[in-house]
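Practice problem. Given the sequence and the SMILES for zinc ion, write out the predicted structure.
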Amino acid sequence: MEASRYLVDVRSILEDLGAVVSVDGTVDLPALEIGTEQYAPLGPAALDVTITNTGAGIVAGGTVTVTVQATCSRCLKQFPLTLNAEVEGFFIPHGSEHEMPEEQDFGFVEDGSVDLMDALLSALALEVPLAPLHAEDCAGICPTCGAELSEGPCECAPSDSNSPFAVLKDLLPEGGGE
Ligand SMILES: [Zn+2]
Ligand SMILES: [Zn+2]
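Answer key:
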């Protein structure tokens, strides 16, 4: 499978210091892959990016917003998670890579275009929470019956083993005998 690309034609600004191309619209993204998790987009991403010829290179900056399908880390409910990320990209012509400081990440201007896909996906990946919650106060699920506790208490009797005193009870000798 070919990697997804999002090419923007920058030929109009290549010879023109300070010139700008605006990218304002929507783009279909592949699923975000973070560790073993997949976050499939529920619709196209909205982009508002400005691409500038700064002389040192072609610099992309702006925002991307997309809603993905996520799984609540407490109750396992699927829910829509909206991500809003700052996009940054830096592109140079082939042949000028030796002028770049080692710590500078960059892509290349290829055939008069830059590919923003990497910049979009890595910016969004940074916004995915480590443990997504469908609601801030998600109560999780009952360990006994699996009921969603956010929707109300379940039928299960409160379990003794959840009480801090249950441990103590096991430690104390049964009854008294003398
Ligand atoms: Zn939840
Ligand atoms: Zn229960």
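Check your answer against the key. The first helix runs from residue 117 to 127.
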